[in-house]
Write a structure and sequence with these properties.
The protein is built from eight helices and five strands; from the N terminus they run E-E-E-H-H-E-H-E-H-H-H-H-H. The protein is an alpha/beta fold. The chain has a single domain, classed as Ribonuclease H-like superfamily/Ribonuclease H (Nucleotidyltransferase, domain 5). It has a five-stranded mixed sheet with strand order 3-2-1-4-5. Helix 5 crosses helix 6. About 35% of the residues are buried.
């Protein structure tokens, strides 16, 4: 089975406000083993980066001026992911931005779902660890994945870490040494502790539409701030 662990960085949180991709990074695994193949590119978004996104990624507008546009790399990117299962943390966010870029190029490119299946590790983590923080950093800490080299969000290092987190969540063992600069040393098996809820869930009286919109916004904030927003921290287990 061929799997691609994918991460993106963007100019802002809301694709509906015209925000664009500024980085795509992919790590390939076959039969749950890293192959050493990866795909990574920065992109010129033809618009300014929001201040919040700039602080999170460390990417400046000037750095992207000489980078390719999505139209320049779309064929090689799609060839890399074609037919694979995509493993993405908060998949709706990344897939939404990728589909928006594809739509700008015309119907002939279709959508990500036409080429790949998608596994959302955020949804997987919420099912396994309800009521807990499930950002990438939180999962690294919980599963014993060393993320000490992650000072800022970056597509390739985040994809590497997510590959380790995914393997830990699905088999109990962290597979390291992904073959890139900055990859970590051999890790140890992880034993998952049983979940203990320390408070009763709080019932929120909101419509399904309101809850869905609320979750989409919090997911986008988690993507940007690794779950450290006061809104997610204050949220009760009942919302998940």
């Amino acid at each position: 089975m061929r799997q691609i662990v994918l991460d993106t960085e963007t100019t802002g949180l809301e694709v509906r406000q015209g925000h664009r991709l500024i980085e795509i990074a992919c790590v390939e695994m076959v039969e749950r083993r890293p192959t050493g193949r990866h795909y990574q590119t920065y992109l010129n978004p033809d618009r300014a980066i929001d201040e919040g996104a700039r602080q999170v990624t460390g990417i400046e507008d000037e750095f992207l001026l000489d980078k390719p546009r999505f139209a320049d790399i779309v064929d090689e990117f799609l060839a890399f992911i074609d037919g694979a299962e995509l493993i993405i943390h908060n998949a709706a966010f990344d897939v939404g931005f990728l589909n928006a870029e594809l739509e700008r190029l015309g119907e002939s490119y279709g959508r990500i779902g036409d080429r790949c299946t998608v596994l959302d590790t955020l949804a997987m983590a919420r099912e396994r660890y309800p009521g807990q923080r499930n950002s990438l950093d939180a999962l690294c800490k919980r599963l014993g994945v060393d993320n000490s080299a992650r000072d800022l969000h970056g597509g390739l290092i985040d994809a590497q870490l997510l590959a380790e987190v995914y393997l830990a969540m699905t088999s109990g063992q962290v597979v390291l040494d992904l073959g890139f600069e900055g990859a970590q040393e051999q890790g140890a098996a992880v034993t998952l502790a049983p979940l203990v809820l320390d408070r009763r869930p709080r019932v929120l009286r909101a419509s399904e539409e309101e809850l869905a919109a609320h979750e989409r916004r919090l997911d986008a904030l988690d993507k940007s701030a690794d779950g450290t927003s006061v809104w997610r921290l204050a949220e009760s287990p009942a919302v998940h």
